[in-house]
Structures are given as structure tokens and as C-alpha cells.
Amino acid sequence: MNIALLSVVLLLAIGSLVIKKSVPAIISFILMMFVLGLYYINLDAKMLGLFQIFIYTGGIMVLMLFGVTIIGTEFPKYKVKPFNAVAAFLLFLSISALFLRGVENLRLKLNQPVENVNLFSAEFSDFVIIFALIASSLLYATVKMSSTLKAKRSR
Amino acid sequence: MFEIEMLFAFALFSLGVYGVSSSRDFLRIFFSLEMLLNAVIMILATTAHHLGMTQNIVLAYMVMILATLEAAAGLLIFAAANKIAKVVSPDEFKGENNA
Which residues of chain B are under the pLDDT cut of 50? Predict the structure, then answer.
């Protein structure tokens, strides 16, 4: 079931990059995110799946439709770049090789008992601070950009 | 099973890298960036399920929130670029003074 869902995700992702009309490309992209949400639900991460479908997918859909109002229904002309495709494929191969080489060590390490239980909470608090900093800077960029647009309109 | 699911995540990540490096319009670049972040969320969720790293789910939520914020900020930058310089591609963008 998971493999079938992930195959659909990959096909829809390729479709969203290949389709020349913007609205079908957006529909393909949104469906990809929806199927990913179903995959998370299938993985027993129900809350994450529902969050993905209702909040993430919904928010992105509205933003992309806003983008369509600017670029119109057709994407600008686009050249296929074989060098970039080969580079992306090589990246896929190298990440996969690294992962498959280290996956057994990862499993062995995870089976060992955790020595310091508080280690994760100490690391996690750092993560939260970094994420909060990035989120606040993005929020600032959003507000600043909307005020720039407003000033441009009133000029 | 776990390995195959992770390979799918890597494929989605590579597809996103290809999209970012080869696209010539803002919207497709956003698609590709979201694909990159979705691949990361997918890796976090898959490892949480198969390896018992349940703390990864919390990180997945954080990445999801950042991805939505990034899309909002990015689309506003796109709107501003379009309004100021009348461009739909980052290649055409030369800044306010040169438009």
C-alpha cells in the first residue's frame, strides 16, 4: 500500500514539473501533497497526515492560485536541461548508496539503550530556538514585502 | 520496506533539486522547493515509524510550518518582483533601478 502511494506521489511530482499549463500543474502538485498526507496516515502518523492535508496542502493551494493570477494559465517557455537531469540522478544515486551503506549501522545504534535520557531534550531545545528564529525572519520578510507592495501601489 | 520508502524520498528530493536548478519561472521553483521540504518531512515520518524515532514527528511539524511560511514569503517576493520589474522569471529580474 505504501509503495503504491509513494509511486503515485512520484508520478504526480514529475507531472507537476512537466505539464506546460499552470492550473493542471498546480492540481498535480496539490494531489501529490494530498497523497503524501494519506501516506502519513497509513504510517500511523494520523495527526501529521491530517495536518498535511488540511493545513499545509490548503495553504499552499491558495498561495499557488495567487501565483497563477500573476503568471497566467501558461508557464513561460522552458528548455529541458540534460546536464541538470544527470546531476540530479547522480545525486539520487549517491544519497541512496550512502544510505544503503549506513542503514545497518543505524539500526544497530538504535537498538542500543540510550545512555543519557536528557540528551535529546537538550538538543531539541536548540532546534526549537533555531526553528523559531527562521520562522520569525520569514514572517518579518512576509510583512515587509507586503508593506513594500502596498507602498508601491499607493505611489 | 523501510529502505524502499527512503529511496522514494530520495527520488523526490532529487526531483526537487532538478526542478530548482532547471526551472525558469517562480512558480515551478516553488513547486520544487516544496518537493525538497516534502521529501525531508517524508524522511522524518518514515524514520519515526520504522525506527521508532518518534521525536522526528515533532521536527516534521516544524519543517511543515517553515515550508508554509517560506511559500508565503516567496510568493510575496514573486508578487513584488512582478509588480516592480514586470518579470515572471528570476533570470529577467535586474532590480528596481534597472527595470
Answer: 99
Architecture of domain B2-85: Orthogonal Bundle (1.10)
Residue B61 touches partner A, C-beta closer than 8 Å = yes
* CB contacts, 8 Å: A67 with chain B: 26-27, 30, 75, 78
ipTM beyond cut 0.90? no
In DSSP notation, A105-119 reads HHHHHHHSPPS-THH
Name every residue whose Cβ is closer than 8 Å to that of residue A107 and which is 6 or more positions away in sequence. Answer: B51
C-alpha distance from B85 to closest chain A C-alpha (Å): 12
| Contact flag A103-B61 (C-beta cutoff 8 Å) | no
Domain boundaries, chain B: 2-85
